Amino acid sequence: MIGTVASRRHAIADDLRTQITAGRIQPGERLPSEAQLACHYEVSTPTLRNALALLQAEGLVEKIHGKSNYARQPLSRTTYVGGGRTPAQTPLPVSIRTTKLRARGHLAALLGVTSGSPATEFLCVSHAGKSPHSLARVYVPRDLAPATAPDAPSWPQETASLLGGPRPQLAKVEENVHVRLPTASEAATLRISSTLAILAITRVATDITGRVIEAALLALPGDRAEAIFTTDHTTTERRPEG
Amino acid sequence: MIGTVASRRHAIADDLRTQITAGRIQPGERLPSEAQLACHYEVSTPTLRNALALLQAEGLVEKIHGKSNYARQPLSRTTYVGGGRTPAQTPLPVSIRTTKLRARGHLAALLGVTSGSPATEFLCVSHAGKSPHSLARVYVPRDLAPATAPDAPSWPQETASLLGGPRPQLAKVEENVHVRLPTASEAATLRISSTLAILAITRVATDITGRVIEAALLALPGDRAEAIFTTDHTTTERRPEG
DNA sequence: CAGTGGTCTAGACCACGAA
DNA sequence: TCGTGGTCTAGACCACTGT
Predict the structure, then answer these.
(1) How far, rounded to the nearest angstrom, does the alpha carbon of residue A199 sit from its chain's CA centroid?
(2) Is the pLDDT score of A194 beyond 90?
(3) Which of A85, A145, B25, B80 would be B227's cystine partner, CB 3.0–4.6 Å?
(4) Whole domain around residue B183: which residue ranges?
């Protein structure tokens, strides 16, 4: 069935997709208005909007209410390096907001502390150009956080941590990777469609004693990020079970 | 703005989502027809279908053309264990189809062989109950494949490989994780909506000499799978760079 | 065949952004 | 205010699944 026109909206989406990926429509370029596009493709507005919704879910089109639709780079991929290793590439600029809070529920479980324990949250938003790229919420037990710089507007140390920089005493890093749709606030912060799935990574780093040094919730928009994990079996020598 | 009714379709989706997750609509249960639902919520058919589309993208509803819409378990999560380690849980039953082919283009690059080199493909579909769960395409250089069982309809060895079973001489496993929408054939094979994002893992395993033993393309539907990666820094001793 | 979902229309009306 | 996208309608017609 591939090659056949499944539906009008798919045909339109295919056409626009080709134009964007081929560069005939430049990244960042404004698309014609939906009324014009609907007229051009000889379909009704809902049908045309349906086609744009497909491209939006792929991250190829950014819709801005009241303005217009814009093409976006299908490239600009960032690679998250797992395992607490330092990434080879230079990390993107990151803006950080620090909040003191008390760990409860899910967060307390992640940090392995009792509910109500003080912790510090670092809300990190990395930027690619002028638009937000990815989001990280890093949680550190309060007594470990102030050692470097608790309220600093920008914390270079944390930037490294966001992208996997090692910390002293780091013994184990466990990373849980899953796919989900962004929450409403995540979609707003990242300026993405709520239908564009994200790569969600929950990272828990523990020291030699088993204490959790850091827990991080990363939200990487699926169209612009990937993660890579490398396991070396020559040094670990494979310990079947403990 | 959360708590406000953003739109009719979101309100309807919220209502149905609650009913499904709360168990008032049982997993596998048939929903009322779209006409009945539209009448019940006092909206037009397109609006109601729009609401169902939201739930479909979350994997909560399965639409079957000509029959009806069905609720699905939001549970039944499978955990993929990275790093070539053996998973703790019993793997799902897997059906395998073996194909001999020649590696070209992307596949040849993955396997690190010249274009046209013989290889064997194992198309593995794991099943949860009677419905397909996840998909793996495992590629092995032809001279390594027949050692065990080239044309066997079911190859237990490969089952282990699919979920991370180790192989002799395995030295390094590199896993690239990203999010994307399924291709048309993947969506058909997995019986999922083409709007339900999947966790795509490209796994390349090499032996001590650096030769690629196996390359695998895994497609794990985002609503029912997650991946976990554990890095032990006490044994690897952290080599900053090579 | 009847019942159901899939697609599309033509147009109304609301909400947002920039002037 | 105007141009834009966002939502919704009422109904037509097609496609699939079962009897």
Answers:
(1) 6
(2) no
(3) B80
(4) 78-231
Tell me the chain A residues in contact with residue B180 when contact means C-beta distances shorter than 8 Å: 222
Provide, as residue numbers in chain A, all residues whose Cβ is less than 8 Å from the Cβ of B83: 229, 231
Tokens of A228: 């890579």
Asked if the Cβ of residue B183 lies within 7 A of any atom of strand C, the reply is no
B63 nearest nt, CA–C1': C5
CA–CA distances in Å: residue B175 to residues A24, A141, B199, B215: 34, 31, 12, 10
Residue A150, domain member (yes or no): yes
Which chain D positions have some atom within 7 A of a protein CB? 3-12, 15-18
| Separation between Cα atoms, residue A136 and residue B86, nearest integer Å | 30
Percent of chain A clearing pLDDT 70 (strictly above): 77
- pLDDT < 50 positions in chain B: 1-3, 147-166, 236-242
Residues 6+ apart with CB under 8 A from B106: none
Tens digit of each residue's pLDDT (9 = 90 or more) over A68-117? 899 986 555 777 776 565 555 556 778 888 889 999 999 999 999 999 99
State which amino acid sits at residue B36.
Q
User: What does the angle CA A169 – CA B241 – CA A226 come to, to the nearest 5 degrees?
Assistant: 85
Domain containing A20 — which CATH number?
Answer: 1.10.10.10
pLDDT digits (tens, 9 = 90+) for B7-17: 889 999 999 99
Residue A92 and residue A212 in one domain: yes
A170 touches chain B (CB under 8 A): yes
